[in-house]
């Protein structure tokens, strides 16, 4: 049996900056995970459908446009609605500290801001993946 | 039939996704469902898309999928990317070109890493094809990893194999003749908006002139995803090929080949599991050591006996 952690790295909304997402994606790959990258400009529907088809263990959302309180929460709600409760949701990007509690309440397990060493994200996923 | 299998044959996406994960991870739980769904398979048309890196395979698959959807067909897509031999991880990025399909209920896309398998495919691929077939997909498009010369295993699975090239490869058309050349049912010269299409097509034509089997000449289709040209022609060539397969009975032979390859793969996996399950192997071997030491049994007969047990 060769269980691999599968991670969806997604860019919701109208934000064209995916350097950070790509760096995280590479780091997760180098840590032995299978990373599905969606590309830019994804809707919550697209992200959740992809998460279902790819049967991922983790959804990582990256956003730098400031719309995280809407879009991250949309994705979390839709995942819950589709009964994907066992998926670990994490977020990253430019997220003000005061927004973090609200995101966590909505089901985003952890938020990683700029400057986070990628090793921290890897070990967080390994420790907290739910299945 | 168990719950998972019965949901799969109704086309439930979560169940399809779940069983694919189980077969990818080689989990024993998958076996029962795989047994149960087999008799619901055999209806899907399986198209393999292979070719050099950066030849636009993903974009071409996107266009083909749109065209099949317009005909009302359900489409399964399996996109394979390489697994790193060092970390075991993989970056699966083929969906980037297929974004517009991800909310279409008539399309199921799954990205897979090669996970150590050679030949441009992944070991669970046979199972995944069976799952998508049983789930009611009319067409299954398989994208291999970008290949060079001898990653030709796709022919063991696909009914129709497309080999995708691009203009400006120059002498590399020469280089591919040994492997890829032989497996193509249809050649696609993609990115036909770029200069050098005529030359690439001409090189292929002259290569085909040397092939003695004239029963069916491999068609060459120039396509441009950017200018949305050639896709309908490609679809019609695919249909023609399917008709040819059925007419010439090659279809049955190819299906037999697939089942043969699938069966061998299952046996290979089981043997590997056994060999690499050191504890189990050691237990089995231990039983014979006493007898060998007492000269009641020689090592060769012991090996025969153990292998006999495994192969039973």
Topology:
The complex is a heterodimer of chains A (131) and B (312).
Chain A: E1 6-10, H1 19-30, E2 34-37, H2 44-54, E3 58-63, H3 68-81, E4 88-93, H4 100-106, E5 110-112, H5 118-128
Parallel strand pairs in A: 1-2, 1-3, 3-4, 4-5
Chain B: H1 3-9, H2 13-24, H3 29-37, E1 45-51, H4 57-70, E2 75-81, E3 90-92, E4 107-113, H5 125-134, E5 139-143, E6 160-165, H6 172-175, H7 180-183, E7 186-189, H8 197-209, E8 220-222, H9 231-247, H10 250-276, H11 278-293, H12 299-311
Parallel strand pairs in B: 1-5, 1-6, 2-4, 2-5, 6-7, 7-8
Structural class of chain B: alpha/beta
Considering DSSP H and I runs of 4 or more, what fraction of the residues of chain A is helical?
40-55%
Number of helical regions of chain A: 5
Fourth-tier CATH superfamily name of the largest domain in chain B: P-loop containing nucleotide triphosphate hydrolases
Q: Would you tell me the overall average pLDDT of chain A?
A: 92
Termini separation of chain A (Å)? 14 Å
The CATH topology assignment of the largest domain in chain B is Rossmann fold
- Total number of beta strands of chain A: 5
How would you explain this protein's 3D organization?
- The complex is a heterodimer of chains A (131) and B (312).
- Chain A is an alpha/beta fold.
- Chain A has one domain: Rossmann fold.
- Chain A contains five helices and five strands, in the order E-H-E-H-E-H-E-H-E-H.
- In chain A, strands 2-1-3-4-5 form a five-stranded parallel β-sheet, with helices on both faces.
- In chain A, helix 4 (100-106) links the parallel strand 4 (88-93) and strand 5 (110-112).
- In chain A, helix 1 (19-30) packs across helix 5 (118-128) and helix 2 crosses helix 3.
- The mean pLDDT of chain A is 92.
- Chain B has 312 residues and is α/β, with parallel strands linked by helices.
- Chain B folds into two domains: 41-249, P-loop containing nucleotide triphosphate hydrolases (Rossmann fold, 3-Layer(aba) Sandwich), CATH 3.40.50; 277-311, no CATH class.
- Chain B is built from twelve helices and eight strands.
- Chain B has helices at 3-9, 13-24, 29-37, 57-70, 125-134, 172-175, 180-183, 197-209, 231-247, 250-276, 278-293, 299-311, and strands at residues 45-51, 75-81, 90-92, 107-113, 139-143, 160-165, 186-189, 220-222.
- In chain B, strands 4-2-5-1-6-7-8 form a seven-stranded parallel β-sheet, with helices on both faces.
- The longest helix of chain B is centred in the C-terminal third of the chain and has 27 residues, at 250-276.
- Classes of the chains: A alpha/beta (131), B alpha/beta (312).
- The interface between A and B is medium-sized, with 32 and 31 residues.
- Strand 2 of chain A pairs parallel with strand 3 (90-92) of chain B.
